[in-house]
Amino acid sequence: MGQKCNPLGFRLGVTKEWRAFWFAPKKDIPKILLEDLMIRSKIDELGRDVAVSSTEIYRKGEQVRVLIFSARPGVLIGKGGANIERIRNEIQEIIGNKKLDIKVVEIKKPELSAKLQAEFIADRIEKRASYKRAMKQTIARAMKAGAKGIKVQCSGRLEGAEIARTEWFKEGRVPLQTLTADIDYAYVPAVTKFGVIGVRVWIYRGEIPVRRFNKEHLEV
């Protein structure tokens, strides 16, 4: 097997859960899926300053619940709740008359979030800082925060080189083929005047036990 499979999709149903929780008739799925994509797009438009790690969407009947995981909940909510109220109004326009509930959840250890670390590296590259230094800083922070292993990769015209190349650094273990491994993965593009540089981060946070059915409780 190559390493072409998304580590999150590879573990769905085993140790990872979906980031959207709902069930709908077949004819309604395209509309709801488009709504979900638009909601995520609106949250991504807030920029990297709000440090959003992930978004979960729960639907039940005419109720929509959006959980936003952020390392800077104060910045996301804004002064007097101005920012979150604006986001609420924009999402309400997307979902129409459905009842909306938005909750902001603080991330205790942003150093173990692959998306936030990839955004940090991309931000440093866009500001013309050394990509090697940014990658090594990220690795040091993650290992200090308790990660079992981390791999960081940058691809593209690094430092404006004529020929694109890929460089990566790794520390600790990153068992990509182990289904029980808790691996957080993210890809973030860094847009520079030389072109787009792709930043990928894999963080191994330990083992997760697989849920098993108890045969005694199964009905025959």
Question: CA-to-CA gap between the ends?
Answer: 38 Å
Poorly predicted parts? 213-220
Mind telling me the CATH class of the largest domain?
Alpha Beta
Mean pLDDT: 89
Helix count, per DSSP? 6
Share of helix among residues?
A: 25-40%
CATH superfamily membership of the largest domain: K homology (KH) domain
User: How many domains comprise the coordinates?
Assistant: 2
Characterise the protein shown here.
The protein contains 6 helices and 8 strands. By secondary structure, it is an alpha/beta fold. The protein folds into 2 domains: 100 residues, K homology (KH) domain (GMP Synthetase, Chain A, domain 3); 98 residues, Ribosomal protein S3, C-terminal domain (Ribosomal protein S3 C-terminal domain). A hairpin with a 2-residue loop joins strand 2 and strand 3. Helix 2 runs antiparallel to helix 4 and helix 5 packs antiparallel against helix 6. The C terminus is likely disordered.
